Amino acid sequence: MRKLVILGGGYGGLAIIQGLLDDHLPEDIEMILVDRMPFQGLKTEYYALAAGTATDLELRVSFPKHPQLTIKYGEIASIDLEGRQVLMEQSEDIIYDYLIIALGCTDRYHGIEGAEQFTSSIQSFSNTRKTYQQLNDVRPYGQVNIIGGGLSGVEMVSELRESRPDLNIAILDRHSRILSSFPSKLSIYVEHWFQTHDVDTRFQVSVDRVEDGGIYNGSEIIMSDVTVWTAGIQPVRVVQDLQVAKDPGGRIILNSYSQIAEHPDVYVIGDCASLPLAPSAQAAGAQAEQVAEVIHSLWRGDTPKLHPLRLKGTLGALGKKAGFGLMGNKAVLGRVPRLLKSGVLWMSKRHLG
Fold this sequence. Notes:
This protein has nine helices and 23 strands. By secondary structure, the protein is of the alpha/beta class. It folds into two domains: about 1-35 and about 75-105 and about 235-300, FAD/NAD(P)-binding domain (3-Layer(bba) Sandwich), CATH 3.50.50; about 110-230, 3-Layer(bba) Sandwich (FAD/NAD(P)-binding domain), CATH 3.50.50. Strands 5-2-1-9-20-19 form a six-stranded mixed β-sheet, with no helix packed on it. The protein has a four-stranded parallel β-sheet with strand order 13-12-11-17. A three-stranded antiparallel β-sheet has the order 6-7-8, with no helix packed on it. β12, α6 and β13 (about 200) form a beta-alpha-beta unit. It starts with a strand and ends with a helix.
């Protein structure tokens, strides 16, 4: 049997499994999915778990079942590309014929002193549970600060505001506006929502260090009972340790087939891959579908036919009743994008499950 090992059961990992199973999977192929958890966590909704507006069970999706799919649980210690094996921390190492790296991302702290130690995270299911507990334990009128005014930070702030109207909440960003990578129309709409919902927005904040109970913006101390970090991501440590070509963001540079050039038996999907798209669940899923087609073509001895990766748009939530989005070049605001986001989540859970 030839072993195709998939590292990571997130959006990219499950999409590649589904893509391979949708076409005829050769009988001599055994797929092995490796993950630390016995289910997929819907990472795009972790902000709701942290805020307490979604339960643990709501964000779980069962892994698929198939006679040619084996699931192994555990922590990955490292990847030996030359030896073609995955080294596990407390279980038997796994030898592969083909490897798909879809391990996702973790927080990037930009070398800021105390940021990793004194801020809370929503980058993993486990850390999000801890963040929920910390936010839940803040006393009324306590101060919560979210560092980072991108999509994750905005959704975290708005969901927490609906969950805890008693808290003082602020979002801090180094740019001159919220959602700086989006059109200004979206920024203005979100900032207005924050104003009407008593969320403090602070721009051009340069965080020098973080301590227990305080954030340093130069000589200014911003007091904080809980600080949530949403100010950057990078590939997970296992990928950081690989000695292969990477872009400035630490993502692995690939050939047109999403392979590591020196190791064509290894594919990289999602947040660990250097793509011409911003990291997202949608990008990981679209790339995974393309890689599944590439693998099937190579197994058949055909030349893969590549198509451009296209995304349908971006949707964001402002609590449960409002939202915003970018569909192509068109900004959409209000209740409609929120309903669309809920629909996408429902379809995703149904498809993946």
